[in-house]
Amino acid sequence: MENLKFVNLLLLLPKIQMEQFAAYAMYELKKTKEKQLLDYLVMRIAKGKALNKKELLAILELKEGEERKLTRVFSRFTEILEGFIAAKELTKKDRKDSQLIQHYLLLKKLKGTGQEQLFLQTYRKAERYISTINKNDTRQQIFSLALAHEVYFHPHVDLAPPSSHKSTLRLNHIGDLMDLLERVHSINTLQYAAVILSRKQIFDAGVPIQLKEEIERLKYPSDEHYLTMVYSEIITLYYDFEEGLYFALKSLILQNLLQLPFHEQDILFRHLINLTAHAIRLNKTFLNDALEIYDFGIENEFFLKDGYLVKEHLINYINVACELGKTDEAKVFLAKNKSKLPPSIQDQVVTLCSSSILIAEKDYQAAFILLLYINFIDVELRITGRSNRIRACYAWHMTTKEDMVVGEKKDVFIKDELDSFRNVLNRLGNNKKISKERLEANHCFRKIVLEMVNHIGTLDKSSVKKSLRKKLQNQKKVACRAWLLEQIDKM
């Protein structure tokens, strides 16, 4: 029962608001039994107590097998709760977008009621909001445009020149509305275009043919509009990456990002990460820029979810530092930030990152042994942990002069590891616990490593290297691609 949408929504509220909701819902519910059930639910959930389906059925005087009726009642509760939460959000004084929506709803309510004086007061207040919106907040601008449309096209707005009829509203700022419409169209078109181009880069998604034409024909506002300027440069880089423009854009974003509304910060920061990842694929020297960006993101809490650091970002930082050979920096960073991780996976992430550092320091045996005795509960960590194990095992195999490793011949030992990894991947794939793309990428990684092992004794390595490089080039999705290329070159 704890997974019910109603329960999860109610848990978002502080206790005092739970009680307010219960009182509010009493006016919405008609049936006494439903009111009793709601009171019971709020009381139990507020105290953190579990729900019992039999007790819920009993309150409604339902029998086993009549759960569908109970589900319909819960749907009604959820509908009322959603309205309550939305109303609470609308009353927040510190959020301009909430107040804009309030004005919009009030004007819709007053339309056609004959209450010209009330409409006039609301109109004047709304007009002041429209004139003071943040030009770098696209969400505010969209809400303002809807509000402006409601105001300016009301039947009581007079489009004629001023007259002596004082009770009629006059449209004094139609030019402002046109400017607002142009700005909303321009910035939002640029934002959506940037998302489409970003998806093309990451997922090889298609791009509408008319997109570039649409962008080019836009009438851009002047450069005083920061977002328009930034998104124009982002789009230019997605189409044709240029090093100097990238550095200028990175500086422009990082210097001004914290002055923007949070939702704008989040979108721009993700574009900066995507463009940096693209830059690294073109030239490894951009790895230093990735470290700078990750430092900025973690310091300013861009990578938090539910108050905890998202594990992928910490792991990415460690991997980038290791690729640059900055293992001491990676150790300091890990020690400083590991406590920010969710407690349930903290030890697992630390072990994984420590193994990456050991591999970068060429202590392959220590890395392999570290990973050998840990059971990764988290699926993503399990897969990355296994690929690290194979990387450590292969490198240990290639660098040790001993013919035997932990009691087995070296090639047999690493093939056992590869077989074990195949079984892990197949189990996860069969249980739908891993995406098709991730499964394919790791199977490709495993097969190429196996082929490398099979050719260790081959005297003429040049044809083998050429064949493996071609396979890598033809595969769009391969895990640890850079590492594989490095090992192929070393064969």
Concise description?
This protein has helices spanning 5-10, 15-28, 32-46, 53-59, 67-90, 96-110, 116-131, 138-152, 174-203, 211-217, 226-239, 243-256, 262-282, 287-299, 311-323, 327-337, 346-360, 364-372, 379-399, 410-430, 436-454, 461-474, 481-490; strands at 157-158, 169-170, 304-305, 308-309, 404-405, 408-409.
Overall number of strands: 6
User: Rough shape?
Assistant: globular
SS field, number of helical segments: 23
Helix content: over 70%
Output the strand order for the largest sheet. 1-2
Mean pLDDT: 82
| Uncertain ranges | 159-171
Percentage of residues in strands: under 5%
SSE arrangement, N to C: HHHHHHHHEEHHHHHHEEHHHHHEEHHHH
For the largest beta-sheet, the strand count, sense and barrel status come to: 2 strands, parallel
**How far from one another are the termini?**
57 Å
Q: Using the CA coordinates, give the radius of gyration.
A: 30 Å
Topology:
Elements: H1 5-10, H2 15-28, H3 32-46, H4 53-59, H5 67-90, H6 96-110, H7 116-131, H8 138-152, E1 157-158, E2 169-170, H9 174-203, H10 211-217, H11 226-239, H12 243-256, H13 262-282, H14 287-299, E3 304-305, E4 308-309, H15 311-323, H16 327-337, H17 346-360, H18 364-372, H19 379-399, E5 404-405, E6 408-409, H20 410-430, H21 436-454, H22 461-474, H23 481-490
Parallel strand pairs: 1-2
Antiparallel strand pairs: 3-4, 5-6
Helix pairs in contact: 2-3, 2-5, 6-7, 6-8, 7-8, 8-9, 9-11, 9-13, 11-12, 11-13, 12-13, 13-14, 14-15, 15-16, 15-17, 16-17, 17-18, 17-19, 18-19, 19-20, 19-21, 20-21, 22-23
